[in-house]
Amino acid sequence: MRFGPVAAALSLFLAVNASVGHADNHVVDPRAASLVVEGRAALAANNAQGAIDAFEAALVIDPAYTAIFLELANAARADGLQGKAIRYYREALERDPGNFAAMAGEGEALVEKGALEKAKRNLAVLKSQCGSECPETLALQKRVDRGVPVQIPGQMPEQMAAETASKDEGVAQN
Predict the structure, then answer these.
(1) Rg of the chain (C-alpha set)
(2) Of 1.10.10.10, 3.50.50.60, 1.25.40.10, 3.40.50.2000, which CATH number belongs to 27-147?
């Protein structure tokens, strides 16, 4: 009999189990923690890009620190980049499927992006896993109830403001 395939499968199973058990005991690198604090301060000062830079630097230092993805997602939402925020929330959920903050954050970003039905699906999952009185569920429920943000006609997002700025006489146009 050949035991090679069975031994390979068993060793793979044990390796995966050992790495999963070890992932729960992750010790955060102090330099990454310092950069996260710096990023939160930048975000509180309405400097979303500075916050993103600090969080990305923290992620380079400690790629196993899953909470950085939540911070990056919050900063991306503050910068009006809901699609990027959704990607960060999903990365956090891939690493930690039971992360209620990531589920709620993704749902809120979906509402801001206009995907109300997908946000309602997130809300249903969150209610089933966390409960109706969970703080994350309540926050997402409130956001879904408010609905999709309405763009005021004539008011442009900050990203488009540069394109509509008046032309300077001394600057050559393409």
Answers:
(1) 21
(2) 1.25.40.10
Alpha-carbon gap, residue 109 to 40, rounded angstroms? 19
Query: Which helix H or strand E contains 51, and what residues bound it?
Result: helix 48-61
Q: Would you list the domain boundaries of the chain?
A: 27-147
The pLDDT mean for the chain works out to: 79
Confidence at residue 102, expressed as pLDDT on a 0 to 100 scale:
92
Residue 95 has pLDDT above 70, yes or no: yes
Identify the three-state secondary structure at position 21. helix
Alpha-carbon span 121 to 11, nearest angstrom: 38
Tell me if 105 sits within 8 A of 70, measured CB to CB: yes
Q: What residues have CB less than 8 Å from 88, skipping those under 6 apart?
A: 69, 70, 72, 73, 76
Question: What CA–CA distance (Å, rounded) separates 164 from 158?
Answer: 10
Prediction pTM value: 0.70
* Look-up of token digits 């035991």: 3
Helices and strands (H and E) in the chain: how many: 9, 0
